[in-house]
Design a protein that fits this description.
Keywords: FAD, Flavoprotein, Lyase, Nucleotide-binding. One of its GO terms (molecular function) is deoxyribodipyrimidine photo-lyase activity. Its cofactor is FAD. Belongs to the DNA photolyase class-1 family. This protein is mostly helical. 47% of the residues lie in helices and 6% in strands. It has three domains: 139 residues, 3-Layer(aba) Sandwich (Rossmann fold), CATH 3.40.50.620; 126 residues, Serine Threonine Protein Phosphatase 5, Tetratricopeptide repeat (Alpha Horseshoe), CATH 1.25.40.80; 197 residues, DNA Cyclobutane Dipyrimidine Photolyase, subunit A, domain 3. It has a five-stranded parallel β-sheet with strand order 3-2-1-4-5, with helices on both faces. The longest helix is centred in the C-terminal third of the chain and has 22 residues. The structure holds flavin-adenine dinucleotide.
Length: 541
């Protein structure tokens, strides 16, 4: 009797949750409807090949490991479990289909090019084995393909345009956790489990984290349980939610001034659709509230916007061949890149941010603005692709679409074109942390520097540096560039690059504004040089 049973498989990739998971709910519902016919096996494929090309730092591996352990626990509460299968999807699926007598495979759809390619191959293999495949879009609130279709087959390239389209779309129904499976439909052990009952168990931390010395503090543990707890904690103060305006949150507070739900949304431990629904419910109760682009709902819609534009271009994460991205002659500067990467630029605000990123795996959005602008058009004139790669390794929330989209924005390569508005690596941080407490925490060498020069240690005399216990060039680096000089040169370089791009591109792109620095925080003149003004005026036409 049991030999004839077919298996229903749900393949977790992102979407590491049991709530609002339509692809998981589908197999649970089918199995509950005909318990005598089916076994259920939710799987996660641990692909060692990914290590060859994907940059994943130790902190993100830990986040994934914790998320898998939590997911297994959640599935056990539903009378199932998580099966970890080791290997490449294209290699493991033919075997699994045979071994488990699979009838149906479900998974959440993905827009990343490597995932699309992989999924197409798996779908072909499934069809060769007579296995039905059903996919569901649940990583984003809106289906990027649908938004593009509504815009006559083109991705909307401005946030406002995007809002106009999604405003008319129906919101998807947010699903509850599926009901647990009845007893008696747990799969019998396959030949591998019979030999080793732990064969499909979750990986341990040691198995995933090859360089444990790189693990930082575990400030944001992975998993759906923590995601839901964090969401509830973020939403508890409804006045805060209603008044939220991103530009008024601090990049350098000692505890995060925004939700830090991004790692949970990235791995799908939290459903963006659930968070959106909960936010909307609060806003109904608080009719006087902030609005997109600066509100919390507005933040989620930035995520949707980038997913939509990225879905339309497989080259979204590179400059060449990218339909959105201006071509800018960035330079290779390995020593400057190295200094930026490791928080040794000699600009304490920049270094504190980069060190926080390495230790904790998360930094505030405006902190990302500051370091991204510094690396690219502001100071170092290094390609956004290099910065993207470093973020890819260090961020817990690293996300193909969001990382690339935001790097293009900050480097004024796409979506934002006011390149003459440059963040000051000195003035910007002072605004929200005039005493430099954030710098003292992440750049402890400078802890004894007084507020007056902690952002600009080069202003201290040598004898003062000795007194503060940190001599520049010995205990902390001299600044690698002089911002006051280089940012002006770089504005000219941008202006020239824009001119060349204008000559080769014909498409009109509108400027849009989210929360670039106000004149008091920027060292570039907000009022553009006459050259830059002309550039912007022309682009607007
Ligand atoms: P909140 O302000 O609490 O916002 C709630 C959610 O909205 C976030 O969790 C996130 O999912 C979404 N969101 C907020 N801001 C943005 C934004 N600008 N673009 C897209 N979605 C947004 N975010 C990532 O999730 N992954 C990345 O790889 C990533 N790379 C970035 C690279 C650069 C150079 C920059 C400037 C920004 C990047 N961001 C990225 C966007 C943003 O910085 C983070 O999403 C945000 O800081 C996460 O913190 P939070 O959860 O507290 O955000």
């Amino acid at each position: 009797m049991s030999a004839k049973r077919r298996t229903l498989v749900h393949w977790f990739r992102k979407g590491l949750r049991v709530h609002d998971n339509p692809a998981l709910s589908q197999i649970f519902n089918d199995a509950r409807a005909s318990p005598e016919k089916f076994y259920v096996r939710p799987i996660f494929i641990l692909d060692p090949g990914i290590l060859d090309w994907m940059q994943v730092g130790a902190n993100r591996w830990r986040f994934l490991q914790q998320s898998l352990v939590d997911l297994d626990k959640k599935l056990k509460e539903l009378n199932s479990r998580l099966y970890i299968v080791r290997g490449k999807p294209v290699d493991v699926f033919p075997e699994l289909f045979e071994r488990w007598n699979v009838q149906l495979l479900t998974f959440e759809s993905d827009i990343e090019p490597y995932a699309l390619q992989r999924d197409t191959t798996v779908q072909k293999i499934a069809s060769e084995h007579g296995v039905k495949v059903d996919t569901h879009c649940s990583h984003t609130i809106y289906n990027p393909e649908l938004v593009i279709a509504k815009n006559l087959g083109k991705a909307p390239v401005t946030y406002q345009k995007f809002l106009g389209i999604v405003d008319k779309l129906k919101l998807p129904k947010v699903l509850a956790v599926p009901e647990g499976l009845p007893d008696g439909i747990k799969p019998i052990a396959d030949e591998f489990e019979a030999v080793d009952s732990c064969v499909y168990d979750c990986p341990t931390l040691d198995q995933l984290v090859k360089r444990p010395q790189e693990l930082g503090v575990n400030k944001f543990p992975g998993g759906e349980t923590e995601a839901l707890r964090r969401m509830e904690a973020s939403l508890i103060d409804e006045n805060w939610v209603a008044a939220f305006e991103k530009p008024n949150t601090a990049p350098n507070s000692l505890e995060p001034s925004t939700t830090v739900l991004s790692p949970y949304l990235k791995f799908g431990c939290l459903s963006a659709r659930l968070l959106h629904e909960r936010l909307k419910e609060i806003l109904v109760r608080k009719p006087k509230h902030s609005k997109p682009p600066v509100s919390l709902v507005g933040q989620l819609l930035w995520r949707e916007f980038y997913y939509t534009v990225a879905a339309a271009d497989p080259n979204f994460d590179r400059m060449l061949g990218n339909a959105y991205c201006l071509q800018i002659p960035w330079q290779k500067q390995p020593d400057h890149l190295e200094a930026w990467t490791h928080g040794r630029t000699g600009y304490p605000f920049i270094d504190a941010i980069m060190r926080q990123l390495r230790q904790e795996g998360w930094i505030h959005h405006l902190a990302r603005h500051a370091v991204a602008c510094f690396l690219t058009r502001g100071d170092l004139w290094i390609s956004w692709e290099d910065g993207q790669r470093v973020f890819e390794q260090l961020l817990l929330d690293q996300d193909w679409a969001l990382n690339a989209g935001n790097w293009m924005w900050l480097s004024a390569s796409a979506f934002f074109h006011q390149y003459f508005r440059v963040y000051s690596p000195v003035a910007f941080g002072k605004k929200t942390d005039p005493t430099g407490a954030y710098i003292r925490k992440y750049v402890p060498e400078l802890a004894k520097y007084p507020a007056g020069c902690i952002y600009e240690p080069w202003k201290a005399t040598l004898s003062a540096q000795r007194e503060y216990g940190c001599v520049l060039g010995v205990d902390y680096p001299h600044r690698i560039v002089n911002h006051d000089i280089v940012h002006k040169e770089n504005i000219k370089r941008m202006s020239a690059a824009y001119k060349v791009n204008r000559e080769v591109r014909t498409g009109k792109q509108e400027d849009q504004n989210d929360y670039e620095p106000s004149p008091s925080q920027s060292t570039g003149k907000r009022k553009a040089s006459s050259e830059a003004k002309k550039t912007v005026a022309k682009r607007r036409r």
